[in-house]
């Protein structure tokens, strides 16, 4: 049971975490912190949080747990404020989509507090954002990856794990670099491709007809291009090493397809499409 | 009211068309033709069709309308058989995803019959295939594009339009080349990108971890990579001119993103992601 949970960034992830823990009676009070007063007012109105604040120092007094659920690009500023105000025992965790850079931020700003820092990443993204997107059960049967620092205490790690499990999530543990390599491939690369694809469509003179005639394949393929631009700018910059490598590999694969098309090589196209189709059809989640 | 409808290729599209027209009492008898006896047996069992045949010549005797719903790559062979057997008045239409090449096939094989030929493309794709995927209402609120030949009679065009409208579809009309340019952009390119993306993932040594940790963004982005490989081989080859141009434009856009990433140009990344995100979020379908 947490006496006081502070959520910094009350959006889809932070808000849904608060809702689930309140429903599970694992937290007494949730304080939300954010840049947008309108969003905090909405969060209060929806009872996602019990109190709102724009002042980190006063809000984290007596906090048991602080969840950083802002875009990664804002975490440095938030941690600098936390460094001066955090109670000695408070656990700090985060929901950042990249983990190598967030680990470096913990070291830079909370070096005295690393035993209580538990970097994490709930895999429950969405193109929705803001407190109004928060909902019960968002993490049910979803995965949460924790990437503890060398210094993270087993007890702090266990407590964070338990809270995510109480939200219905399956918790996995790996190193920050393993995490970042995998998510460059399965998440960051698809987002970059979807953004680039939509922009290449917009550059066409017949873009309006295209959008009018686009069907369900387009709908699903481009859903992630509706994602939060600032958050995704931060993610791709934070993880640009692995991402650039994956982009190069993707371009090679695409050039192979282009060569097959130019050559009219039906057998090679079939074989490649079949390989992808079989894996995708067999993928269960 | 059609006395006899012949569906060549009883899959998602052909089967769903038959179901809707039967429910609307617009057809007395549906005869299904296909290469797979198991699929035809399934179609009979599910009452998608009333009779099955593997012989085009006998099946199309007395037919009022023939729908070609096979992959485009099989249409030449089917039309060659139709040429010898088609009743003088029978309307021929198709559901091919490319229209320039199908128009050429009509001219090559059914030159004597062009007034009764109505090329078409229902926009209701899916990664599902086979008669078992057929369902009522598939075309409800979907678009169907008809690309009549110069020779197509207004009466034949009107009859095909009416049948699709009876299935709940919105029918549009354009030239084959307009159609092919738009669908290269909104459908064929995304499929090629999704196939290439899945194949680039499979080439990784940590592909298994990637598939295990992939989330809902991956799920939607790659759904079309589960599509029918043979059908998509035919489509991309049939429309490779416009598709190769779109691939080149996409690669340019991707190179722009890569340069922004390499330069760490946060403002340019934000601006491009925002442009895509706004269009995608505002897109309604």
Automatic annotation (TrEMBL), chains A, B:
Species of origin? Chitinimonas taiwanensis DSM 18899
- What GO terms are given for molecular function? NAD+ binding; prephenate dehydrogenase (NAD+) activity; prephenate dehydrogenase (NADP+) activity
- One Pfam family named in its UniProt record: PDH_C
Matching InterPro entries: 6-PGluconate_DH-like_C_sf (IPR008927), NAD(P)-bd_dom_sf (IPR036291), PDH_C (IPR046825), PDH_N (IPR046826), Preph/Arog_dehydrog (IPR050812), Prephen_DH (IPR003099)
Which segments constitute the Prephenate/arogenate dehydrogenase domain? 3-285
User: Which SUPFAM superfamilies does the annotation name?
Assistant: 6-phosphogluconate dehydrogenase C-terminal domain-like (SSF48179), NAD(P)-binding Rossmann-fold domains (SSF51735)
- Keyword set, alphabetical order: Oxidoreductase
| Name of the molecule in the record | Prephenate dehydrogenase
């Amino acid at each position: 049971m947490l006496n006081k949970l502070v959520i910094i960034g009350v959006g889809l992830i932070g808000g849904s975490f608060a809702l689930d823990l309140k429903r599970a009676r694992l937290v007494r009070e949730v304080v939300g912190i954010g840049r947008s007063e309108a969003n905090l007012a909405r969060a209060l109105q929806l009872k996602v949080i019990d109190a709102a604040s724009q002042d980190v120092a006063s809000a984290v007094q007596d906090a048991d747990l602080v969840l950083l659920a802002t875009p990664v690009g804002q975490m440095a500023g938030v941690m600098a404020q936390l460094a001066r105000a955090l109670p000695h025992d408070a656990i700090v965790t985060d929901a950042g989509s990249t983990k190598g850079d967030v680990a470096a931020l913990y070291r830079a700003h909370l070096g005295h507090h690393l035993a209580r820092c538990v970097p994490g990443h709930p895999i429950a993204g969405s193109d929705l954002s803001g407190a109004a997107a928060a909902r019960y059960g968002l993490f049910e049967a979803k995965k949460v990856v924790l990437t503890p620092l060398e210094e993270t205490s087993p007890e702090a790690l266990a407590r964070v794990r338990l809270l995510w499990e109480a939200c219905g999530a399956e918790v996995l543990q790996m190193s920050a670099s393993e995490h970042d390599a995998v998510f460059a491939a399965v998440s960051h690369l698809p987002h970059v491709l979807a953004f680039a694809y939509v922009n290449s469509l917009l550059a066409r003179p017949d873009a309006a007809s295209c959008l009018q005639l686009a069907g369900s394949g387009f709908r699903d393929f481009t859903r992630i291009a509706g994602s939060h631009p600032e958050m995704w700018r931060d993610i791709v910059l934070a993880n640009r090493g692995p991402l650039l490598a994956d982009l190069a590999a993707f371009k090679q694969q695409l050039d192979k397809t282009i060569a097959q098309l130019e050559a009219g090589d039906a057998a090679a196209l079939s074989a490649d499409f079949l390989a992808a189709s079989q894996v995708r059809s067999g993928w269960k989640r």
